[in-house]
Amino acid sequence: MEQETGQKIEDRKKTAGQYQITSWCKRMIREHVQPGAFCIDATMGNGNDTQYLCELAGEAGMVLAFDIQEDALQRTRERLEQKLPYRNYKLILDSHSHLEQYADVESVDCIVFNLGYLPSGDHSIATRAETTLEAIAQGLSRLRPGGLMSICIYSGGDTGFEERDAVLSFLKELDSKKYLVLVTEYYNRPNHPPVPAFVVRM
Questions:
Q1: CA pair distance 33, 23, nearest whole angstrom
Q2: What DSSP designation does 2 have?
Q3: Residues 6+ apart with CB under 8 A from 172
Q4: What's the confidence (pLDDT) of residue 4?
Q5: pLDDT above 90 (res 27)
Q6: What's the distance, Cα to Cα, between the start and end of the chain in Å?
Q7: 130-146 pLDDT tens trace
Q8: How far apart are CA 92 and CA 48, in angstroms?
Q9: If we measure between CA atoms, which residue out of 47, 44, 110, 41 comes closest to residue 81?
Q10: Handedness of CA 36, 41, 44, 50 (dihedral sign)
Q11: Could you tell me how far CA 173 lies from the centroid of its own chain?
């Protein structure tokens, strides 16, 4: 068998990286967020998604980012201050289950959820089925026609499966005349790989 060269190995890693859940979700998000867009990062964490939305929306856009942990706000604030030459964001110390208080109906172009716990944070503090479902329901009513909701669903380990199962069941029952729901799987990967889900408002 021909031995792989260093370049072939790097090419293979690059190809695989394009289909990691974060990269896959970003590809979908990029198609729906134009300069001037209004976006919501419902699970701020370390601010990776917040930064990406801010860059896509540009100086004329606006991004609201939610988290219940002060650490998340501090990390995200530091990241954005270093990476962005403008301030087109508002960081909100509140549950995403209250997002209806911050955005009007049919006003949002993209809403991003990255479920689970804060990376390198307290694993006992994680998103939960009941509040996540409230936030998703509120978010769907806030999406503009053509708007996108991206949901990275992690399960197993510390977080269990309750939230994953509840979210997937909820999405399956959405009115097909109002929403297009796409759920993909890493079908041949072990150990409960993450599930990327997307909802497009019709």
A1: 15
A2: P
A3: 181
A4: 61
A5: yes
A6: 51
A7: 999 999 999 999 999 99
A8: 16
A9: 47
A10: negative
A11: 21
Closest CA to 139 of 163, 117, 170: 170
* Distance from C-alpha of 154 to C-alpha of 173, rounded to nearest angstrom: 20
pLDDT digits (tens, 9 = 90+) for 142-177: 999 999 999 999 886 666 699 999 999 999 999 999
* Amino acid, single-letter form, for residue 55: E
Tokens of 59: 């100086």
Ramachandran angles phi, psi of 137, nearest 5°:
-60, -45
Q: How far is Cα 40 from Cα 62, in angstroms, rounded to an integer? A: 9
Single-letter amino acid, residue 16: A
The type of residue at 118 is L
- The whole-number average pLDDT for the span 86-112 is 98
Q: Which two tokens stand for residue 120?
A: 């390198």
Higher pLDDT: 63 or 21? It is 63
Q: What is the pLDDT of residue 1?
A: 45
Query: What is the pLDDT averaged over residues 32-39?
Result: 98
DSSP helix/strand/coil, 28: helix
**CA 202, CA 145: separation in Å to the nearest integer?**
5
Half-sphere exposure of 2 (CA within 13 A, CB side): 5
Q: Reduce the DSSP state of residue 147 to 3 states and report it.
A: strand
By residue count, the chain amounts to 202
At 179, the amino acid letter reads Y
User: In whole angstroms, what is the distance from residue 191 CA to residue 46 CA?
Assistant: 24
- How is residue 100 annotated by DSSP? G
